[in-house]
């Protein structure tokens, strides 16, 4: 039974997508063959939960995500800066840092808990939507539950590989759309599999 690697994400507003894509274009001057953000097949995003899922369970997972989305309201998150860290193979990766709110943490935990019945982390290259898959990508997905979830959840938008001198934005990031995406190399969101709106009125 075939499986694919997926990321459940929040998609930022058009304004923030444009800003992050512009920052990515600066980074591409350093690493032109790495992450190339766009609005079609490499979406800027805030990850909530990653895992490997059987394609036969995608519909069930989508129904769960729809029920979760109905409980949450669109939210104004804040981008509070940017940082550069080193991945598992020594490469520099720059991200925009999202302030962690109670609602965002709660949404992350609920998605992780509700999809745990379908997710596993026995990741292989053929589960990703990419011709080439770096070892760092496989390790990030495999280690997501241990290193990036619950108390260690770190909301951010990956801008790309390399160092930025400055990030021209610090402010609000409107989010109202939840999506499940097929992952590509560098944990990019290559294809939207399911899409739903946060619709609970405040």
Would you mind describing this structure in some detail?
The protein has 202 residues and is an alpha+beta fold. The protein has a single domain (3-197), classed as Cyclic phosphodiesterase (Cyclic Phosphodiesterase, Chain: A, Alpha-Beta Complex), CATH 3.90.1140. It is 26% helix and 33% strand. Strands 1, 2, 3, 4, 5, 6 and 7 form a 7-stranded antiparallel beta sheet that branches. α2 packs antiparallel against α3 (102-115). The model has no long low-confidence stretch (mean pLDDT 94).
Strand-helix topology:
Elements: E1 3-12, H1 14-27, E2 46-54, H2 58-69, E3 75-86, E4 92-98, H3 102-115, H4 135-142, H5 144-147, E5 156-161, E6 171-183, E7 189-197
Antiparallel strand pairs: 1-2, 1-6, 3-4, 3-6, 4-5, 6-7
- Beta-strand fraction estimate: 25-35%
CATH architecture: Alpha-Beta Complex
The residue ranges in which pLDDT falls below 50 over 5 or more consecutive positions are none
For the report, how would you describe the main beta sheet? 7 strands, antiparallel
- Which structural class is indicated by helix and strand composition? alpha+beta
Shape: globular
CATH homologous superfamily grouping? Cyclic phosphodiesterase
Radius of gyration: 16 Å
Average pLDDT works out at 94
Q: In which range does the helix fraction lie?
A: 25-40%
Per CATH, the class reads Alpha Beta
